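Field log, afternoon session.

UNIT: design team B
ACTIVITY: writing a sequence onto a fixed backbone
BACKBONE:
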């Protein structure tokens, strides 16, 4: 199923901002910090507390966010809102990505590619609108701990066998770590933002 939601980019205060939005809107907040992902070993420790993926779902509203961590592009006010396209069908993503990339800024284009957390891509279209793409892969349907452990092991093995060798080779991947997320439900004040 194809889905489009707003996507926010923050300069190191994503957890604080999302906790605030959670306090205003209620619902369920998911946060994943870099330190809780397999990519922590490829990024400087100063980034380990940054949020690589946040998602807030409240009634019919939902949006995602991340802290800005691109190695060569800088966060500036004005490039902090994007559109986030997800699908469980790579062909849907490819079709939309290819159409939007016509006339796109090639310096701001990360081709759809298979990364440790799934297929990812990013572009700024000819009007300057940023689009992030991610293929959603289904989680195991079993609640059996062994099944989940094997799925986590497979993700870890996939990460260790990936060819990215330095942070400078990574795209702006912040939005893509759903599978390792910490699911927060309840009152926002119950959850630390540090």
């Amino acid at each position: 199923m194809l889905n489009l939601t707003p996507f926010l980019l923050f300069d190191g205060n994503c957890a604080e901002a999302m906790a605030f939005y959670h306090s205003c809107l209620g619902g369920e907040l998911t946060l994943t910090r870099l330190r809780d992902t397999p990519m922590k070993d490829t990024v400087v420790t100063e980034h380990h507390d940054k949020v690589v993926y946040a998602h807030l779902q409240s009634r019919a509203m939902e949006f995602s966010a991340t802290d800005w961590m691109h190695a060569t592009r800088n966060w500036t006010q004005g490039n902090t809102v994007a559109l986030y396209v997800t699908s469980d069908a790579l062909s849907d993503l490819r079709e939309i990505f290819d159409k939007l990339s016509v006339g796109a800024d090639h310096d701001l284009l990360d081709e759809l590619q298979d990364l440790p957390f799934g297929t990812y891509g990013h572009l700024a279209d000819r009007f300057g609108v940023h689009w992030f793409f991610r293929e959603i892969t289904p989680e195991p349907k079993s609640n059996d701990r062994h099944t989940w452990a094997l799925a986590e092991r497979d993700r870890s093995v996939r990460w260790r066998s990936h060819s990215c060798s330095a942070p400078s080779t990574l795209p702006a991947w912040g939005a893509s770590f759903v599978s390792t997320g910490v699911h927060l439900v309840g009152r926002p004040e119950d959850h630390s933002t540090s």
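LOG NOTE: The mean pLDDT is 74.
NEXT ACTIVITY: expression trials, pending approval
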